[in-house]
Amino acid sequence: MQHQERKIYKRILIMTAVPMEKDAVARGLQRAEADGFVVEVAGVGPASAAASTAALLAGRGFDLVVSAGIGGGYPGRAAIGELAVSSVIVAADLGAETPDGFVGVDKLGFGSARIEVDAELAARLTEALCVAELPAALGPALTLSTVTGTAATAERLAALIPGAASEGMEGFGVAAAARHFGVPALELRAISNAVGPRDRAAWRIPDALRSLERASTILAEVLR
Ligand SMILES: O=C(O)c1cccc(C(=O)CC[C@H]2O[C@@H](n3cnc4c(=O)[nH]cnc43)[C@H](O)[C@@H]2O)c1
């Protein structure tokens, strides 16, 4: 097996989209009696997330940024109430629509829609969550500006990004800001809904916030 270097992170910025996610993360960190963490609200969507994260990273000495919140889970990969840890963060709608379908920026040749994460940390966090009886999937975390609301789009995205585990609206924005400052990023989603046909009544936001709180305790323990 290839040896993966274990990096030590001491100053960690956690970006959530909304205050209720920030509060859940803060409760989890408090239970772990963690220090070195700052939790902030980024706003909803990749642009707001990137701008807020960049403003916080400028000159503040953070060495890891985590995008955390509730999210959609891809069927068969992450169920409601479970967790999803990013193996890579992907801007899934960054590209061009053509008569033959969607073409991503990588293929178009103007940048990349993928931001790599610290693979060793992602694997270690996923394992620690599972050991704590918080089922967690390790896989691509997709960022979209529009929440997926049809089976056709969910199937297209799952085929486009094999192994897609979660969907959110901020991860790539947070990670793009982190990359700009040379800081590694990770995404952690607590699943509130299945990615697929829109069924707002089936969303389980309180359950996902409870999972996010528990996962934040484990995140602090893993980073300690
Ligand atoms: O449509 C509604 O009534 C509604 C009410 C509350 C929240 C929403 C959202 O769309 C929340 C977006 C927010 O949550 C994340 N999120 C949660 N599930 C997903 C998803 O399946 N796909 C993308 N994003 C999701 C997202 O990161 C935002 O921060 C709607």
UniProtKB/TrEMBL annotation:
Entries under SUPFAM superfamilies matching the protein: Purine and uridine phosphorylases
BP GO annotations: L-methionine salvage from S-adenosylmethionine; menaquinone biosynthetic process; nucleoside metabolic process
EC number: 3.2.2.26
Enzyme class, first EC level, given as a word: hydrolase
Pathway: Quinol/quinone metabolism; menaquinone biosynthesis
UniProt cross-references to InterPro entries, sorted A to Z: FL_hydrolase_MqnB, Nucleoside_phosphorylase_d, Nucleoside_phosphorylase_sf
Keyword Hydrolase recorded: yes
Domain of life: Bacteria
UniProt KW keywords: Glycosidase, Hydrolase, Menaquinone biosynthesis
Gene Ontology CC entries for this record: cytosol
Record's keyword annotation contains Hydrolase: yes
Reaction(s) the record says it catalyses: futalosine + H2O = dehypoxanthine futalosine + hypoxanthine
Entries under CDD domains matching the protein: futalosine_nucleosidase_MqnB
Domain Nucleoside phosphorylase: 38-223
Family classification: Belongs to the PNP/UDP phosphorylase family. Futalosine hydrolase subfamily.
Role played: Catalyzes the hydrolysis of futalosine (FL) to dehypoxanthine futalosine (DHFL) and hypoxanthine, a step in the biosynthesis of menaquinone (MK, vitamin K2).
Name recorded for this polypeptide: Futalosine hydrolase
Taxonomic source organism: Cohnella fermenti
